[in-house]
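Q: Entry one of two.
A:
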Amino acid sequence: MRRHHVSALAIALIASSGVTISVLGQNKPAPAVFAPTAGQYETADIRVITPGVVFASGLPDLAAAFTKETGKTVGITTIGMGTIVGEISKNTPPPDVIFLPFQLMTTLSLDGGVMPGTFTPLGRTRMGLAVRAGAPHPDISTVEKFAAALKSAKAVMRSNPASRTMVATLIDDVLKRPEFAGVNAPVSTKGEGGQALARGEGDMAIQTISQILPYKEIELVGPLPRELGAWMDMTTAVSSRATHADDARAFIRYLLRAESNKVWKPRGLERFE
């Protein structure tokens, strides 16, 4: 099961403001804090489908604040990247607001899945290296130093590329480079690489920064060297199937306000300015 973090502020606001969250496409129910079910997603004023990387970057906090200001309830469904486009196209009731990596949103838009004029860049989420809390932070400022750090680890945990998620694929592509030959990088059998490290498996992990920061058991060393191109550029749009298009546009405008960067940035999402 994919775990998600919500700040104390978000939990308090969610409890009182009508933001509902559910997780689809997973074998186990979401943690207790996400007690609202898909039925509440169905009745929300604004229905949202997002991959976990945007969720972990502060989306619930901003949704809760939006609801507090406007009275419009927001239902958020998190779907794995491997199946999210299909769910956006067939989920009933349909989503109003959608979040996808640029490549997937482009394809969906060309297929008529995006309301014209609403395809909007959101921000960049980078892959990072994590170590156990309190462990030394290696120098990973260059590809050579990063490779040396990984080779010094007993096990570098990572997401399973068989999951077909973009995160897992990006990490797998990095580790297939010749510089990383000899790195022991077992795939996590339960959740993402960062979650495995937080459970005590391995001594390092590669994961999106936004999905490293929520865990107190692990620490972010830093982003992977820029030369590796290990990041995802995220976008948002109003779904062409939206039934609350005006509210969806208002919610997106709220998310893109300069003030919202105070939430996005500390969670690992670098907004496009």
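Q: Entry two of two.
A:
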Amino acid sequence: MATDDPGDLAALARLCLAELIGTALLVAVGLSFVILDFGSGGLVTKVLPSAAARRALTGGLFGATGMSIALSPVGRISGAHINPVVSLAFWTEGALPTRSLVGFVVSQCIGAVVGATPLLLWGARGSGISYGATAPGPQGVGAAFGGELVTTFAMVVIVLIMVAHPRLRSRTPFVFPPLYCLMVWAEAPLSGTSTNPARSLGPDVVALAAHSYWLYVIAPAAGALLAVAARRAVPRAARLRIDVAKLAHFEEGAVHSLVSRRGARATRGRSTPGSA
């Protein structure tokens, strides 16, 4: 449980603002790629008529957007979770305080709606595909649920293993472009490959349509929790401790002072990378 120190509250507000901005950018830029690649009458559709090829391209571009945000100054501030289930996984691992989890998730959801609002500028081209909203494919809700569960599990388990490994953690952001290229290519026909409740929320709000939103909350959350359990079940991976809730900038010291769920207090200012 965090203290009520005003410095802690100000630092948490700064972290939450960074998550809001980062998630807004992910949705605004990432879903613009979706609209550009799949909206009717677009140049990309004419140049690249294969839907599978466009899925791979879109996934790679979406992953590159996430990577860029993680490596940016915004990512330096908060660690660039920009996804509620990533924050949930770090919280479950004991690397993120409960108050930060709540603040991050709320900020990510608000940021997603803020980021989706400019998508209205795409007009009919955007509205024709509900501004990049995710929805179950022809195979039905069950297949979509399974697809979201598996893809989120894969993403989170890779992130956790890399963040936990001292020699791999600095490369964590660079996993996202090829990972999402592969996942969107293979899985998008089932569910749209969200893996992120905030990413699905934004376009649903601006399109004023739910698109089975409950699925895009429960399945990714379950996938993230299963990923944590799987990491702990493998002895070699379980020995690696996750003590930092960030995806990039591991060389940076902590910029805030919060009490973790384990009761260890991070020092204010520059401290060990594991204290952020």
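A: Comment on entry two: The CA atoms of residues 74 and 93 lie 23 Å apart. The chain has one domain: 6-275.
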